[in-house]
Amino acid sequence: MRHPLNTPIGRFGIETDEESQGRCVATMPAYGLISPITGTPSLGPLAVLVDHAAGLVNHDRRGDDQWTVTSELSLELSPTCAAVIASHPDEPVVGSARFVGAKSTTGLGECDLSLGGELIGTGTVRSYFIEAPVQLAAWPTPNGATEAKIGLAAMMAVGDPLRDGDAHVLPQRADRALNNSIDVVHGGIASAGLEAVASAAANTGRADDPLNTASLRVNFLRQFFAGGQSRYVGTALRVGRRSAVADSQAIGSDGKIATIARLTAYR
């Protein structure tokens, strides 16, 4: 199933091939998604696919009076993930998700990422089951679709990257197409922004010898509203010759930290 271009998953070209109780299979093009900060291929957008597929299997387990909100997202990528994507420019990444264990106050979904018959990563989404909101944002229809956005910066609606001392900063502009059903920035897209600034911080001064993202662990603290001074901020904790660890924050239009992440990268 194709999704409207004025939705977060439609903006990233995600197609849902299967959705049944306890399982979701979806695809997303990943080749040519270039970081607006470093100018190198970005692996952060894979979080958009994980959030959709693994989040959906959690959402499908909700009760009639329940809704889900993501509290955690993780992404674990193989050492050859970037190389496999580069060698398959015309094939989308396949995300195959299933739920893990019994449902409680939270649910856990796990998603395998594969390309060209090779497993290139896994991811998880943990969701809270909450009381269903009285009103949800209207889900756009195909008739309201806008034109496709070209390039990762346009797809994410981010501004020009900035430096604040040692920190890398990426402004997040308001764009209704990036918002989920409760009208805040889609968790996968926020995760991609967090990965972008953290990866840039880890790779400062390493243009000729970049480190590839290996893991990303995201905690969603509160709703992330875009616009105004909303931004992603990434700082390095430690950078070595063959590995680095960096932290990042998504700061909303209200000036509050909405989402945090820790990234590990390796040569």
UniProtKB/TrEMBL annotation:
Pfam families: 4HBT_3
Signal peptide: none
Gene3D superfamilies, A to Z: Hotdog Thioesterase
Transmembrane segments: none
Positions of the Acyl-CoA thioesterase-like N-terminal HotDog domain: 181-265
InterPro entries hit by this protein: HotDog_dom_sf, PAAI_dom, TesB_ACOT8-like_N
Gene Ontology terms for molecular function: thiolester hydrolase activity
NCBIfam families the UniProt entry points to: unchar_dom_1
Name assigned to this protein: Hotdog fold thioesterase
Organism of origin: Mycolicibacterium hodleri
